[in-house]
């Protein structure tokens, strides 16, 4: 197994805020990537690997330059997928459909971020808790071992958006019996026809799942993750995300979880991209499972 050496480091809650009048966070990300590119070119590794290099065999196992494969976030590409188009077609009810904080009203990115944390972070239920046995994840799960650069590359960088939602939501002592989600590309060989998979925790081994291919979602409620509207904030290193719980029979939103964070980048390293993610105070960068567990409670079994 190749050892990952790309040098990505994310430490939640330790970011220095950076200054409005210096380099933007976006500029620092691009500068850090350019530094890594120069080092990889000089050492002839990664995309510059030479088959005639006497050290080719050793260098081919290095992954220092894998970070160069990470591309800037492309919102148009997300909207080109059916699930991405669905996620951004969901309308929030008034007054939650309009932002209360606008960038133009604040002198610095730091002040703007503080205002977002104070006024835009929400966890709200639009109806009482529903009693169900499972939930559906309505976006394509991330690729396992996928590398990212937070606000530079991610649509949704808050807390944990797992590659396997079943691991997050159908863990031991979870209120959910099952989770349904889309089939990933690498799972097509095993499940060539199914569009979705249903996961239930094995009754004999809690570390394993019973996996059933299904043609359509059976869960009454599904959830989507999406970025907040102001994607231009990424240049300031600000990222935001929403989890929307939806009644799949009506596509009405019944619950909303929204959070923000801000990145800082250390450009003193020339051979790696080192950055920190700072969530809004009090949110702790937690994943969204607590929100879904509060919104959806297990049916009482007879």
Architecture overview:
The protein has 302 residues and is α/β, with parallel strands linked by helices. The protein has one domain (25-298). It contains seven helices and eleven strands. The strands form two sheets. Strands 1, 3, 4, 5, 6, 7, 8, 9 and 10 form a nine-stranded mixed sheet that branches.
Supply database-style keywords.
11 strands, two-stranded parallel ribbon, 302 residues, globular, alpha/beta, disordered N terminus, 7 helices
Q: What order do the helices and strands come in, and which of them pair?
A:
Elements: H1 25-43, H2 56-59, H3 75-79, H4 82-89, H5 109-119, E1 122-125, E2 130-132, E3 134-137, H6 165-169, E4 178-182, E5 196-201, E6 209-214, E7 221-227, E8 238-247, E9 252-266, E10 274-279, H7 289-295, E11 296-298
Parallel strand pairs: 2-11, 3-4, 3-7
Antiparallel strand pairs: 1-9, 4-5, 5-6, 7-8, 8-9, 9-10
Describe the structure concisely:
This protein has 302 residues and is of the alpha/beta class. The chain has helices at residues 25-43, 56-59, 75-79, 82-89, 109-119, 165-169, 289-295, and strands spanning 122-125, 130-132, 134-137, 178-182, 196-201, 209-214, 221-227, 238-247, 252-266, 274-279, 296-298.
